[in-house]
């Protein structure tokens, strides 16, 4: 089921993102973040998605990668929502919607972020 509309080039931004993260917060904290027990499923999915893309299964690899990103960085979405709440005109509406979604999911704040 390989497709031609997504290429190997789609994996490189994510690989560079992880390398940039290591440069910003340091290699030990990056390794600690990706190897925590609650984050192992996300790490495996993210890595598996990159491998699937490199093996020419880009659509499935992208979906697996996306799942891994949501598992790894899902705690950070609340922080992004609070920043989005400062956008003029639409900010209060975004923050209200994100607060409702966070309460519905029993949202935790970023207690385990590495920085």
Number of helices: 6
Q: Report the principal-axis shape.
A: globular
Strand content of the residues, in percent?
under 5%
Please mark out the parts with pLDDT under 50 across 5 or more consecutive residues, or reply none.
none
Distance between the termini: 40 Å
Largest sheet, strands/sense/barrel: none
Radius of gyration: 16 Å
- Indicate the mean pLDDT: 78
Binned, the helix content reads 55-70%
How many DSSP E strands? 0
Structural category is: mainly alpha
Would you list the SSEs in sequence order as H and E? Answer: HHHHHH
Describe this structure in words.
It contains 6 helices and no strands. It has helices at 11-25, 27-35, 40-54, 58-73, 77-84, 91-104. It is 67% helix and 0% strand. The relative contact order is 0.13. Helix 1 crosses helix 2 and helix 5 (77-84) packs antiparallel against helix 6 (91-104). By secondary structure, it is an all-alpha fold.
């Amino acid at each position: 089921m390989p497709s031609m509309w997504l290429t190997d080039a789609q994996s490189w931004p994510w690989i560079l993102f992880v390398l940039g993260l290591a440069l910003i917060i340091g290699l030990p904290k990056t390794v600690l973040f990706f190897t925590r027990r609650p984050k192992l499923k996300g790490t495996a999915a993210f890595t598996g998605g990159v491998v699937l893309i490199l093996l020419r299964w880009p659509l499935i690899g992208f979906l697996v990668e996306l799942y891994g990103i949501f598992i790894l960085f899902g705690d950070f979405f609340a922080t992004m929502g609070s920043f989005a709440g400062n956008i003029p005109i639409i900010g209060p509406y975004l923050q209200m919607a994100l607060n409702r979604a966070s309460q519905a999911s029993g949202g935790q704040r970023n207690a385990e972020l590495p920085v």
